Amino acid sequence: MAEDPLSHPALDKAAGEEFLREAFQIILEEAVRKGTDVTEKVCDWRKPQDLQEILDLELRGSGEPQQRVLEHCRDVIHYSVKTCHPRFFNQLFSGLDPHALVGRMITETLNTSQYTYEIAPVFVLMEEVVLKKLRELIGWGSGDGIFCPGGSLSNIYAMNVARYQRFPDSKQTGIWALPRLAVFTSQECHYSVQKGAAFLGIGTDNIYLVGVDERGKMIPADLEKQINKAKSEGACPFFVNATCGTTVLGAFDPLADVADVCERHGAWFHVDAAWGGSALLSRRHRHLLRGIERADSVAWNPHKMLMTGLQCSAFLLRDSSGLLQRCHGANATYLFQTDKFYDVAYDTGDKTIQCGRKVDCLKLWLMWKANGTEGLEKRVDRAFEFTRYLAEEIKKREGFQLVIEPEFINLCFWFVPHSLRGKEGCADYWERLGKVSAGNAGSGVGGEPPFSDG
């Protein structure tokens, strides 16, 4: 007779807890201790074919013994990149804040979705507290917002909300009833602006790239010129994206001047501060974002400069009329019922294009609780000081050449090998220099050095 599957527990709790204890010990030793130890490797790097032979990635019909599974855990950590390592310099995030890590662990353990108060009561209230604090740092007394899965999605949300605000009927009629829409952004902007235009049906051909100055900052006069050009071509200028902390140079667009242009032409003013937004926490450096309070929307990624951990990206709105809800809301009655036993205004999940949504506020909230605003400010100031220190050290070393004096915490430089020193006038100099490191941005144009994030 077949065994009744309901007659015994689905999981062995005792064995599960024992596995968790041993796994957490591996995480603490291999990922936290070794992963932040400067004497350890950032990564035990292997080629794909070699790593496939080392790791047992095959999925089989029967389960494996607990000790073997724990060995898999250890291998996964060992051969992965330790982004918390002091010498990890690859992307625009790094470091390990233990309080934020605990926040992530709690979130994963509770495994809830942030769409209604009934399923995530603590986190619904917490998210609004955190978003309000971020808005206050921008300079807004009121507004709206939501945590998104990354800065790219925050920028796409901004573009979608801006279109809805200008053409609310587009939610029902689609792009067929719209004029040709034009987007404006700098030549140094993040590539998510292009992705957003493509994703939303606006089209990348309708992005007008605005010129930048020698520091990579948007030129407001050229923005005005591009908007007038778009109008003469029959397009409707509806969205301007300014960047605070460009990916390569770390440039901050002149927000106040850009805001003036947007006001003259009635365009939505969005600030992509995914990288540079955390400078708002520093009284010494927040001047870099002067004028951000005039933006209609802002993208800000605390998972970068503040070490909150992936992912933690806020999309913030100055509007407090419910624009975000009206733009994205579908009013699914099986989830967002109107006759609940509490104020359904707390059911914020319909503000997003997602259904299930991870809790991204806890790690930032817990880290903020532990460090306070003053502690986070010191963290930002310290990053600036490290950058200034490194810039001065580079100047002392033969063969190293600054691309530009840093304004933010990006430090762009070239390493010039002995074979190329003193040969700056050669026709193929920049092409050859660009091949020195795979991380360099490529060859220059017209004898000018390309920007490098080396």
Automatic annotation (TrEMBL):
GO CC aspect terms: cytoplasm
Co-factor(s): pyridoxal 5'-phosphate
InterPro entries xrefs: PyrdxlP-dep_de-COase, PyrdxlP-dep_Trfase, PyrdxlP-dep_Trfase_major, Pyridoxal-P_BS
GO MF annotation terms: pyridoxal phosphate binding; sulfinoalanine decarboxylase activity
Superkingdom of the source species: Eukaryota
Keywords: Decarboxylase, Lyase, Pyridoxal phosphate
Acyltransferase recorded as keyword: no
Modified residues (N6-(pyridoxal phosphate)lysine): 304
GO BP term (any one): carboxylic acid metabolic process
Family: Belongs to the group II decarboxylase family.
Subunit structure of this chain's protein: Homodimer.
Stated name of the protein: Uncharacterized protein
Organism: Gopherus agassizii
